Amino acid sequence: MKGRFSLLAGAAVMTIPATTAYAQSAPQESEQANPADRGEIIVTARKRQESILKVPVVANVVTAQQLADNQVVDLQDITRLTPGFILGQSVLENGAQVSIRGVGTTSLDPGIDQSVSLNIDGMQFTQGNAYSIGLFDMAQVEVLKGPQALFFGKNSPGGVVSIRTADPGPEPEVIGRLGYEFYARTMHGEGIVSGPVAPGLGIRLAAAVNTSDGYFYNDAGAISALGGVQPPDRLGHNHAIYLRGTLLYDNGGPFTARIKLNHSNEYNEGGGPFQYKSCPEGTASYLPSLGIPLPGFFAPGEDCQVDRHTAIVYLNPETFGGLPNQGKPYVRTKQDFVTAELNGEIADALTATSVTGYYNLRSQSLTGGFNPGTYTPFAAAKKYQRKDFTQELRLTSSYAGPVNFLLGGFYQHATVYDDAFLAGNTALGFPSRLLAGTFDMKIKSWSGFGQVRWQVVPTLELAAGARYTDERRSIDMTTTAGGFDFVPTAPKLVSKKWSPELTATFTPTDTFTLFASLKQGYKSGSYNIVQPIFPGTDNSYGDERVRGGEIGIKTRVADRQLNLNLAGYYYRYNGLQVGINQPAANGIPVLQTVNAGSAKVYGADFDFAYYPAAIDGLSLHGAINWNIAKFTSFVGAPCAGGQTAAEGCNLTPRLLDLVNSVDDQISYATGNYFTNAAGEPFQYAAQDLTGTPLSRAPRWQASYGIDYELPVGENHKLRLGTTGQYSSKYITNLGRREDFYQGAFFKLGASIAFGAEDDSWEVSLLGSNLTNKYTTGLCFNSNNAGGILFPGEEHGGPRQGPSGSDEIWCSYDNGREVWLRITIRPKFR
Hints:
Blueprint: H1 2-5, E1 42-43, E2 50-51, E3 59-62, H2 64-70, H3 75-81, E4 85-88, E5 97-100, E6 103-104, E7 116-120, E8 123-125, H4 131-134, E9 138-145, H5 149-152, E10 159-165, E11 173-181, E12 186-198, E13 201-212, E14 216-218, E15 228-229, E16 234-235, E17 238-250, E18 255-269, E19 274-278, H6 286-289, E20 309-310, E21 314-315, E22 330-347, E23 350-368, E24 378-397, E25 403-424, E26 433-457, E27 460-481, E28 484-486, E29 493-509, E30 512-523, E31 526-527, E32 540-541, E33 544-557, E34 562-574, E35 577-582, E36 590-595, E37 598-610, E38 618-633, E39 635-638, E40 651-655, H7 662-670, E41 674-675, E42 681-688, E43 700-712, E44 716-727, E45 730-731, E46 741-742, E47 745-756, E48 761-768, E49 776-782, E50 807-812, E51 817-824
Parallel strand pairs: 7-10, 14-20
Antiparallel strand pairs: 1-2, 3-9, 4-5, 5-6, 7-8, 9-10, 11-12, 11-51, 12-13, 13-17, 14-16, 15-21, 17-18, 18-22, 19-50, 22-23, 23-24, 24-25, 25-26, 26-27, 27-28, 27-29, 29-30, 30-33, 31-32, 33-34, 34-37, 35-36, 37-38, 38-43, 39-42, 40-42, 41-42, 43-44, 44-47, 45-46, 47-48, 48-51, 49-50
C-alpha cells in the first residue's frame, strides 16, 4: 500500500492552489461574473448540494476541476494541503491512521473504528484500508473538520474525509496516464473510458496499476542459524490493481440512479518502513555486556538515525514450524465495494434518497517480531475479513417557505473475523506455536436522524437536528496455547446515544458569512482483537464521546480576488480510545486499546486564496492551524520499559513476584525496589499523563502554494508551481519522553508542466519533499536490545534494570521524490 499512497507524494498538488472549501462561494445570479471568481464550490457536508459559503462547516475541498486537471490521487497530498490533518503509516489490516486536530486512531487493534471516518460515494467506512480503493479517478474530496455525527453517523468524532469519485459525463472521454518515480523506481498507470451509451445513461470504466521496487534500502544482516533469511536490498516491493465501473442514469427527470462497482488487489512485501529513532543504550544487547554470549539483535551498521535505510529480516519457515508466503513478511489486501444511490422526487419540493452499500475486505499478512535486523524470536501471521452492509434512507424538502427539513434512517450489519497465530523461533528453544486465536465479531447498528432549518430572515438561518443511534456488538473467541483450547467470553456491548447539533448561519451579503455551531458526537466501544486473550480477561472498551462548538467567518474581498476564512473551535472528549503497548510478564508485549479519561482540543483555522485579476493565471494560497490538544485526565497510563519512578512511573504499586517472575527476582537481587509499610518489596506500574499532548497534534501547522500558468506560442501552455508545508513538533506515542516526538519540519515541493492548450496531452516533472525530511505519525516503544526476549526489563523502580530503556521505532513516510508523468486525453471534436 505504501507504493500506492506514495504516488506523486504531494507532487501532483504542487500545480494547484490549496482550495479550502469555506474559502469559496458562488456568486449570486444577479451579479456580474468577475474574472477573478474561480467559480462555485458545491459540497455535500449536510447531505444536500449547497454552496460552501452558506454551510456552517470548517472544511477543505479539492474540486472536480482541479482533480481533473492535476490528477490528485494521494491522501498524503490532501494532508499537505490541510493543516491539522496528519496520517500514521498503514500497518497490516488497520490501514492508514488519520488524525484531524490531534483526534484520531492510534491503536493497532483491527476491531476499532477510526475517529475520523471515511465516506466514499455515500457509504461510510471505519477502517483506513478503504482509502486506497477510492483514491483514483476522483471528482471531489471534502475534509470536514470536527465532529460530524448528525450527517455522517456515529463514528466521526474527529471529522470526515468524504470522497466522490468521477461520474460519466455527457461527452465521450478517454484518458491515459503514465508516471515514473525515480527514487522508489515506481511505475504507475491509469486508463479511463467514459461517455454516454444511451439517452440519459452513461458509463465510466477506470483502472489503475502500480508497481514499485520500494523507497527504502534494506540493510538487514540475517543470521541464518537463528532462522533469519537475507532479504532483497529494497524494502517495500509492491504491486496493485484498482478497478471501478460507474453506471449513471440521469435524463433530466425526477429520478436519478448511480451504481459504482470497485475492486482492488494490493500486495506489499517486506513490511512497513520501520526504523529505529532512538536507542538509549546503543545497539549492543545488554546480555553480552554482562559477559553472556548472545548474537546481535541489531543489523550491522545500525546507527539509530532516521534516513533512507532500514532493516527488516525475512524468515525461514522451517525454523518457525511453517509460515505463509515462504517466510517473506507481507500484506495482501483484496477489497470489493459496491454502492447504489437512487434519488427521486416523490412530491413537489420533496426528494427521497436511498444509498445502499456493500463492502468486503480480505487481508492476509505475516510480520516478524520485535528484533527485525538479524533474526526474530517471534512471527505473527493473520487472516482478516470484514464485511459491511449499510442502508441509508433520506427525505429532504426544498420548499419556498422559511422552514425545510431532512429526515433519515441508517442501518448497518457488519462482521469482523480475525484468525491469528504467534509462531516461536525453534532455534531459540521456543515452541513453533506459542499462541493462536480467532475472533468473530458482529455489529448491528441502526439510527434515525433529522434536521429542521428555519430561515428566520433572508440573512439568518437557524438549524437544529439530532441523531439517535442504537449499536450492539458481540464477539465469539477461541485461544490456543500450550496445546490447549480456551474459550474466553466478553460482555455484549450496547451503545445508545443522542448526537444533537445546533447551527446558526448569518449572511448579510453575498460575500460574507458568519457561522456558529454546537455539536455532540460519539464513537462506539469495541473489543481488542489484535492479540489472542485468555479467559478472565475483559477485552472490551467503552465509548468515546465529544461535545463542543465552532465559530467562524467566510468572506471574499477585493472584488472577489481574495478569499479569507477564520474559524475557532473548542471540544471536550471523554473516554478517548487510545492504543497502548507494554511488556507482559511472559515477555510478549501487550497491544490493546483503552479509554483514556478526558481531553480537550481547541484552536483556530485560518486560510486565504488570492487570484489577482491583473495577472492572469497566477494564484497564491496559504493556511495556518493553531491547535492545542491534550489530556485533561489520564491517570493510570502504562509505563514505558525502563521508566523509573523519578521519571513519572509512580502510580499503582505492584508487589514483586519472587516465585514466578525472573524480572522481579533480578529487581530484588539488585535492590531495585521500594518497600511498603509492611516491609514488602514493590515497583510501580502506571503513570499520570494528564496534561500531555494527544498523538499527532502539533501546535502549529502551515502550508502555502504559488502557481502560475502562462501561454506558450499559440497552442501550448506552461505551468509552474511550488508548495511548502510546515509542522511544529508533535508526539507519536503515549508518554513523556522527548524522543517520542517527531521534530519540527518543513517540506518543499516544485513542479513544471508543458502541454497542449486544450489539455489533449501534457508532460510534467514533479518533485515533492525536496528538503528530504523523513517524518512519521506512528511510533512504538519496546526493549529490542534484549529486554523482550530475556529478563532485565524493569520499570517503576528507583533506577533502570539491566536492559535499560525501551528503543523507539517508527514507520516513516518517503523522503524526496521526483516524478516524470505523461498524460494523454484525445479530443473527439
